[in-house]
Design brief:
By secondary structure, the protein is α+β, with helices and mostly antiparallel strands. The chain has helices spanning 2-16, 18-53, 67-70, 81-93, 105-116, 144-151, 164-206, 208-216, 221-256, 261-264, 273-302; strands spanning 58-62, 97-103, 133-138, 157-162. It has a 4-stranded antiparallel sheet. Helix 7 runs parallel beside helix 11. The chain is rod-shaped. It starts with a helix and ends with a helix.
């Protein structure tokens, strides 16, 4: 009988405050969807770092004939065969180096044509303008400075380039987007909490006569508060379910269907469905508990029991 009464009171409260309940559901859904999206974005960035940092190389570009006039470091002329042997020998001695590949001028020109052959500038580049280079694979990409310090000012070396610097700009942009999503999520969460508190206040005020009678007949404070808490929890649960649907639909639309980024950007290691599914229980738990706790604190102030 008590359970039936609590359920009936929940139904009455939801019907009386249908508009505000709808607003709570929408705000909770959007805030939790942004929260889940931010978690997934962070995991995506972490996955991409692991994937790409493991593949990047340190490139040691050697001086060629055309660099002698334009590049101060190559003022002594093009790299000699002896200098190349010494550089390669020193690289193979270093503990931080996992693998060394030498790229000739012809190979560098071929790779350039494969990547930028459609560019209008491609026809103005000749093989003699390309540079020989050592492509160095490190056992730990964080040890780039060890190689840079050892070879940056060496005779015959034009420059030492860490490919991580190119990726860091991309990851910095993605992290910035993640922070922006978290900021919007926090804003939406505050709005949702304010709506929940107002909904509880209105519901408590509209049923002040019923709660007064329940006090007179000796009902406990928890028993009186339960319908209000359950109303908020129910609205939050619906919002959490909608957020889960939005996360699943977003992952499918962006990666598998619609934009199909998985096919268009096949060099990116996108997160799988498992990453999304593991976040859904957390989203649902927050959607259920957050409104219930907010309602509990609101009732302490606005419902004297």
């Amino acid at each position: 009988m008590r359970a039936q009464f609590v359920l009936s009171e929940i139904g009455v409260g939801l019907r009386r405050n249908l508009t505000m309940t709808f607003a709570v559901v929408v705000s909770v859904a959007l805030s939790l969807a942004l929260f889940g999206g931010a978690l997934l974005m962070r995991e995506q960035v972490s996955s991409m770092k692991t994937y790409w940092y493991d593949k990047v190389n340190v490139s040691i570009f050697l001086c060629n004939k055309s660099d002698a006039k334009d590049v101060p470091k190559c003022a002594k002329g093009a790299v000699t065969a002896q200098q190349k042997k010494e550089i390669e020998a020193d690289l193979e001695k270093m503990d931080a180096v996992e693998k060394v590949n030498f790229e000739t001028v012809d190979e560098a020109y071929k790779h350039y044509q494969e990547q930028f052959g459609d560019s209008p500038m491609a026809g103005n580049i000749t093989p003699d303008q390309m540079q020989e280079s050592f492509r160095v694979k490190l056992d730990d990409p964080q040890k780039y400075k060890v190689v840079a310090t050892a070879f940056a000012g060496r005779d015959g070396v034009q420059s030492v380039q860490d490919q991580r610097s190119i990726l860091d700009n991309l990851f910095g942009l993605m992290n910035g987007m993640n922070v922006a999503a978290l900021f919007v999520m926090a804003l939406m969460l505050v709005i949702a909490l304010m709506l929940i508190v107002n909904t509880v206040r209105v519901s408590a005020f509209s049923r002040r006569r019923e709660t007064g009678i329940m006090r007179l007949v000796g009902a406990s404070g928890f028993y009186i508060q339960m319908p209000f808490i359950m109303e908020a929890a129910f609205a939050g649960l619906i919002g959490g379910l909608l957020a889960c649907v939005m996360l699943l639909a977003g992952r499918y639309f962006l990666i598998d269907g619609g934009l199909a980024l998985q096919e268009k950007l096949n060099l990116i290691d996108f997160i799988g469905w498992e990453a999304v599914l593991t976040k859904l229980p957390l989203v649902l738990a927050i959607g259920l508990l957050m409104p219930a706790v907010a309602a509990l604190f609101a009732l302490r102030k606005y419902l004297k029991v």
